[in-house]
């Protein structure tokens, strides 16, 4: 394992600003709003902030304030934050992002999770935090061979925790991390004490009987499973990620729009724009990470590699699971309980899919509450 420090060349930052200044903006239909995708006026405003007011160096320094490392696992460099708690009895916690996220998502939860005493919490709730970048994402990318699906990532995470010497730990994740984290529990049941996810676990089978007795909120969430309009990005990344990558890799405006659209669709439905739900500069740091590491293609390939397992039915897991459901996420407990031992279930009225960015206080409290049951 080698210590790692982020140090993006100034030439890359200058190139980003120059490309943004030369953006060839597309036309659009009058009055279309967001119904055809990201409106040009919105993209231009966000891109102009990125070009003229956003300061990458400030956020690079904030990331570098946390210990980071790189290690080779299964032929791939794996980058990770490893932030140990000052509390000697802290529980190790492996926390995993998804797409279009990164370790940048966790900046607001690292302090409260690792040092609750300093953030008004109980020191007994402390964690040693391990936050890796998924292979193909950020400084764990790009991948250079086929086969890096979610199951292979889970195997790599098991190996990572072994190398760190942790014989007992928990896992947590959202989005793709909510798929990978339970897999780690299945692979390493003797060491994983519990799995916490934000978002749903499990999927409907199509049997009408499974709808009987669902609450009004659960019936509303059912529509999210059938949202064909919002699934186009996933179909593209699962079938033609390389074709898509030409635009994303060459145009920062394209990369910005591709990610910003998901933050519009997946953040708290009560918020009109992405920056109403998350800090605008944190969003741009996340987008910058994709651009500056050139990982548009390799991050999208995770969908291509994993598509065959999307709707599989895993063997039931005996590991205790906790689930936090935020607005806009399709979480239904009876679906989750088919393959997971759910002992903790929470539903929240604010926040959204990017909970660590949108409602870090709620997510931290829920993670603490679940792991009190299994420490």
Question: In words, what does this structure look like?
Answer:
The protein has 375 residues and is an alpha/beta fold. It starts with a strand and ends with a helix. The longest helix is centred in the last third of the chain and has 15 residues, at 252-266. The chain is built from 16 helices and nine strands. It has a nine-stranded mixed beta sheet, sandwiched between helices. The mean pLDDT is 96. Helix 1 (10-21) runs antiparallel to helix 2 (40-52). The relative contact order is 0.15.
List keywords for this structure.
375 residues, 9 strands, 16 helices, alpha/beta, nine-stranded mixed sheet
Strand-helix topology:
Elements: E1 2-3, H1 10-21, H2 40-52, H3 56-64, E2 68-73, E3 76-83, E4 91-96, H4 110-114, E5 127-132, H5 150-163, E6 169-174, H6 177-187, E7 192-198, H7 216-225, H8 232-239, H9 241-250, H10 252-266, H11 274-277, H12 280-293, H13 296-306, E8 317-325, H14 333-336, E9 340-347, H15 355-358, H16 360-372
Parallel strand pairs: 4-5, 4-6, 6-7, 7-8, 8-9
Antiparallel strand pairs: 1-2, 2-3, 3-5
Helix pairs in contact: 1-2, 2-10, 5-6, 8-13, 9-10, 9-13, 10-12
